[in-house]
User: Which sequence fits this backbone?
């Protein structure tokens, strides 16, 4: 797993990952991320500003495939944090989004279905190896 700062070239991928996650949640009756924040025009500008500020990160497999993205900054949403909490120095995670394909691949590896299933998982008696890069 490689974690590196996002750059402006990642903006389209970040937005696509967010849309993919929003759709996946909507299909399960969850309205989280149903509408871009603050709006359709403002979301790309907000993410772009976060990238420019060095607050947005990309998580990639060793082959360079993006598996997730996250923003890390000092913004404490007043709708979620008390004045006392907002007064404390802290970093907050925002926009943590994992690629659905990466989540599925990791799940398959965790339950032992990756690679040769005769030696791993499903009662095969072998050890199941788990890693963030699916290896």
Assistant:
């Amino acid at each position: 797993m490689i974690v590196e700062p996002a750059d402006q070239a990642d903006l389209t991928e970040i937005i696509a990952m967010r849309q993919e996650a929003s759709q996946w949640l909507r299909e399960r009756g969850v309205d989280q991320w149903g509408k871009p924040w603050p709006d359709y025009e403002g979301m790309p500008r907000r993410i772009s500003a976060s990238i420019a500020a060095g607050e947005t990160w990309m998580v990639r497999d060793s082959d360079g495939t993006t598996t997730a993205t996250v923003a890390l900054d000092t913004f404490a949403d007043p709708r979620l944090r008390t004045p006392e909490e907002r007064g404390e120095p802290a970093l907050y995670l925002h926009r943590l989004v994992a690629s659905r394909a990466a989540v599925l691949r990791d799940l398959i590896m965790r339950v032992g279905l990756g690679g040769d299933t005769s030696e791993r998982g499903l009662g095969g008696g072998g050890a199941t190896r788990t890693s963030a890069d699916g290896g």
